[in-house]
Task: structure prediction
Amino acid sequence: MDFAKFKYDQEKKEREAKKHQKQVQIKEIRVKPNIDDHDYQVKLRHAMEFLQKGNKVKVNLIFRGREMSHKDLGQRVVDKFIADLSKSGQMEKPPVLEGRSLSMVFAPNK
Result:
């Protein structure tokens, strides 16, 4: 068998396999600790839509200025997100404080 023909067949199989793969994207939702209830509901609705479409959702809670001294307010918002999103997806990465942001990742239910 000719090596060039073999290589061509291999590349053709790889291209065909790549067509049937689904790219999982990570969508990010940014919130602040003093988020209003309606704004929270809008962000939650977007997160649920992303999970239903099969994307992962990264919830990023950002502290500004003196908000760092009130981490308990941010933790309440994150706990509320966890409770509300547990129906649509499962937590892949628990909330972790990285500098001035508290972030977690949700994956869609299988």
About this structure: The first strand starts at residue 26 and ends at 31. The chain has one domain: 24-108.
